Amino acid sequence: MRYFIFFIGCLLTAINLHAQTTVITGQLVIDNEVNKDNNPSGLLIRNTQTTASTQSNSEGVFTLKVSLNDELSITGADIEERTLKITETMLHKGYVRIHLNIPVIELAEVQLKNKLKKRLEDNIEISQTAGEKINNAMGINDLDFKIKLNLKHYEAQANRVIRDVGGVNMMGLASLLSGSYKKVSGPATVKSQADQVEELKQLFTEKYFVENLKIPVGKITDYITYCYVNYNFAAFISHNNYDMILNYLEEQAPVYLALLDKVE
């Protein structure tokens, strides 16, 4: 009889222990505000009492067999290690939400070699990239080099204008080429719309407008102004894009002449 009671007691104990072991579902959550969109996937969740382990999925969810008072260890890259003890409430719910943190990287104390200057900009040291150092060594960043490069650009541009127009006022051409030096050496004077229209008229010459575009002599300034306003010639001039100006002058000439015919 005594053995029977002992057997029943052992059986009840085993049943009780079994009832305390269950599979729970958990979800890992990153708490840091700056990392709230961080994906807590692939983290290792291990039961330190049974060595059973699993990994969280793409949404931080996992399942693991646990018992009362078991301790879970959560580890992984870029998170602080977290441990959690299983309670009766967790077993009853079958679910646990575990909050994690991203470790704070503490910077070593910086020893300033030089005292800070009163003006903030005096404390900023601009370091050159490898490319900038090479350019400086080759003289590419030199002012004279930039002037020569711009002159080459304007020379090629002027040659295109001469080829397309068939003749350009030499004073206007000289002004165009000398403008490259002014743009590099110092700030250019802002010219009015009327001044820029007149310069375009002198640059392309009356002969071009009359013979090539068939614009009446008395309407040349009006035609250039019409194109200047409607096609933002000011921007083209500021970027020295005379090819686009030439394209619009030739493209809009028939349209402007048709408007003149309607008015007259």
Keywords for this entry:
9 helices, rod-shaped, 264 residues, 2 domains, Immunoglobulin-like, 15% strand, single chain
Word description of this protein:
This protein has 264 residues and is α+β, with helices and mostly antiparallel strands. The protein folds into 2 domains: 99 residues, Sandwich (Immunoglobulin-like); 122 residues, no CATH class. 50% of the residues lie in helices and 15% in strands. The strands form 2 sheets. A 4-stranded antiparallel β-sheet has the order 3-2-5-6, with no helix packed on it. The chain has a 3-stranded mixed β-sheet with strand order 4-1-7. Helix 4 runs antiparallel to helix 5, helix 6 packs across helix 7 and helix 7 crosses helix 9.
**Strand fraction band?**
5-15%
How many extended strands? Answer: 7
Indicate the structural class.
alpha+beta
Unreliable runs, pLDDT <50, ≥5 residues?
Answer: 106-110, 180-186
Q: Quick check: average pLDDT?
A: 75
Helix share bin: 40-55%
Span from first to last CA? 130 Å
Categorize the overall geometry: rod-shaped
Task: Please outline the major beta sheet.
Answer: 4 strands, antiparallel
Q: How are the strands of the largest sheet arranged?
A: 3-2-5-6
**What is the count of DSSP helices, taking H or I runs of 4+ residues?**
9
Question: How would you spell out the order of helices and strands?
Answer: HEEEEEEHEHHHHHHH
Radius of gyration over all CA atoms, rounded: 41 Å
**Count of domains:** 2
Give a short overview:
By secondary structure, the chain is α+β, with helices and mostly antiparallel strands. The protein has 9 helices and 7 strands; from the N terminus they run H-E-E-E-E-E-E-H-E-H-H-H-H-H-H-H.
